[in-house]
């Protein structure tokens, strides 16, 4: 921990100075106690994100096909600790190594889904254009293909599993504090069978000495996503805002609250510092505004049904831009606001990481 | 032909467990006892399917009989499908006297007129329900037995339960039903669910509304051991009140199983803290769905624990009161509700006549009388006409009702047999204490 | 009456009364079951869902020595209900006779904002904040023991100690940013 303590002061001092309304962010302290659970007063002070940048639209034309591949399906999220000696130049080697590892596991009888006869091919590709700052590492996309030996060479290969590691909008100060050999790609999204996901994770753990863990999206972050997506409605229609709560009754009850996009958007705008003119809007969104927005929605609900939604838990948010579930499943349906969503998720991953 | 038989049987067996297969084969009764015993139920399903097909060959059983088997299975296990309830409106005079054989003939005839190739099978179940299985075909193809529609109807009630009907077949089906049952139209009752008994019970108000007496312990207390004198609950009364309110709205015993309730809200947004939205003219459109394995049970439990504040919102209590689970709420509807609450006691009494008459009529429809019973004319009328008749009734002085028989007539039950009349009186006046008019000739 | 006051009644000899306030009415039952088994002092437990308490129980109610708010961190309603109940508590209670006990603090899905809010609440009122585990009998026993320690002091059963004195040692403190900065400067 020594290299970190020496630079521990700079994040704090820089954060204390940056009192401006725009992008102010900090993590739980990287000084000593890392646990997100226990608090040692005086040393560990968690400063929460109270302000985020409003979503910026990135035009679809700029997207490359690799980025488009990220929109295809629902991903399961995990966080990853920094990878030791991961080099972007050696992707081909990694592909071969991972393929070999999977084949050996299959022969041991572990990888049951793969099938004994099919050949496996692994590809690691770079997805350009996602990193926001210089310190960030580029996104890496991994695909596992399989081809049965009887198939013709022209037949398309079946994609058994795909996943990607990314870091979008991570805190530059934190990234600078990392020692030389480490690459930080804290967000890991996987899509495919559980068995293959476990094998890929095992290989990463073995090769790069990192740690994986399930990344759940807690209710406050789901609220952030709902608010940010609703904010986008002015520019891209979100069609409807659907929120799902689960209430602790016997048997458990789910409440699905789906609102018309236009009405939700108007409510959001009325909550955002009423009277704010276009010019004054510096594009930042505060936590109180999100809380106010949800308070309004819950009070409308209570007025009709007299059911207290705060007694339950927000478990899912979905709009035309994407959907996010509490268990860590995310689907991004629209490329326009991908970066904002990923920034929020990267931050969640960085916070959840034990280091 | 063979392929279809094999396909049907395979699909059917796939959905059944071994135990249900045994009982269903027994109920079907097309295979002899020896044949049934020759089946080895420990073998995997595809082996059983082959063996059954052989047995069917032996006994000369064709597709028709396999569909019969399917029907027996569905009647025994109706909860695998999604049922929708429909209500028949505006009974003609002889709607109540429609007999089973009459109904069967009429229905088959009408449906055959409307669509040429269709396969119908009608069966009467022990609990007075008529089950109809319809396989739809069209001009160019044979009836499709893989996607049959099932209809359940209790004669003499205005309710029909349908599953698996598409938008194409629905109008034909409703037309045939309406003609066969002698009503004038059919509309969606706004109730659907998996559990047929539950939606039937909810619509026909057959489930018990058990009201807890004051002696019931609140849910969270220890009812087994004597409560410790050192522990005391401060707010016992409030928990009892919550229990009362919950049971009044939903009933105290086992509740019918509904899976979801949907409300489409188009009301204005009102919030003291948010002026901009409150002043907005357009309604705030949203759809709220409550989902659970037994939604009424969940709502009752949430009322007990305080998640749902009591007194309960009328939107929730109207699920079991109106027997619906799809609602559209607009501002106008809400306003009417509020006016309803503000009405004085006097106005409430007027509605009591109508309400009691309807309740009595519903009871009559489920009873078997020795002779003909004529229901009040007011039942089958439109709301406006009903209100007009009510007004006329109201205008008559209570003490001299006998002198204006014309006013009472629309509300009167006419009995031909004294025994029926007495049974009716005992039920209505003594037990239920309803305000109805009845006469015996 | 709508506001509960600590010194409006006479105390009982060798007895202590505690009021457990919990919106879910679940953990309080388990705690009460363990606490009444205490032998050294006769413990009377009153259970409530929220304050204010019904006025009709007023004559039978003993003097409440300690008010414990049980908050389930996974439910927002729990915290809101506790905050609303605080208004009905007399000022005298905040001199060491109020305590917050939270459950589910280790839940993976807990939003940190709620934890911070509870800590701010407890530190603003200078009350101790205890963390408890309510799913196992051991957890319940431990929580009950800790509450009994504070209860004995608050009821005056421990010589040379008062509730105010104890609360000075155990109350929750959330340092402000300037204080933290000073700590770090000093440390380095």
TrEMBL record, chain A:
It is found in: Chromosome, Centromere; Nucleus. InterPro entries: CENP-L. Keywords: Centromere, Chromosome, Nucleus. The keyword Nucleus applies. GO terms for cellular component: chromosome, centromeric region; nucleus. It comes from the Eukaryota. Belongs to the CENP-L/IML3 family. This is Centromere protein L. It comes from Gadus morhua (Atlantic cod). The lineage of its organism: Eukaryota, Metazoa, Chordata, Craniata, Vertebrata. The gene is cenpl.
UniProtKB/TrEMBL annotation, chain B:
It comes from Gadus morhua. The keyword Nucleus applies. Residues 217-239 are annotated as: Disordered. It is found in: Chromosome, Centromere; Nucleus. InterPro entries: CENP-NAC/CAD_complex, Chl4/mis15/CENP-N. Keywords: Centromere, Chromosome, Nucleus. The gene is cenpn. GO terms for cellular component: chromosome, centromeric region; nucleoplasm. Belongs to the CENP-N/CHL4 family. This is Centromere protein N. GO terms for biological process: CENP-A containing chromatin assembly; chromosome segregation. Its main location: nucleus.
Automatic annotation (TrEMBL), chain C:
Keywords: Centromere, Chromosome, Nucleus. It holds the Pfam family CENP-M. It is found in: Chromosome, Centromere; Nucleus. InterPro entries: Centromere_Cenp-M, P-loop_NTPase. GO terms for cellular component: chromosome, centromeric region; nucleus. The keyword Transmembrane does not apply. The keyword Nucleus applies. This is Centromere protein M. It comes from Gadus morhua (Atlantic cod). The gene is pane1.
